[in-house]
Amino acid sequence: MAQNVLCEVNSCRFWADNSCTASTIKIGKNTMTDVTRNAETDCETFETK
């Protein structure tokens, strides 16, 4: 289980008071090249409420 994961996306069903309640978290990249900045990553665990 993911623990102590902070999240500010309150439109996600796993969001609870600035924390992620998902049992696992998958982070992906949104670029075809190597990731060099956080802006090039995406939370693939996100689900709309």
From TrEMBL:
It holds the Pfam family DUF1540. Residues 5-46 form the DUF1540 domain. This is DUF1540 domain-containing protein. It comes from Bacillus pumilus (strain SAFR-032). The lineage of its organism: Bacteria, Bacillati, Bacillota, Bacilli, Bacillales.
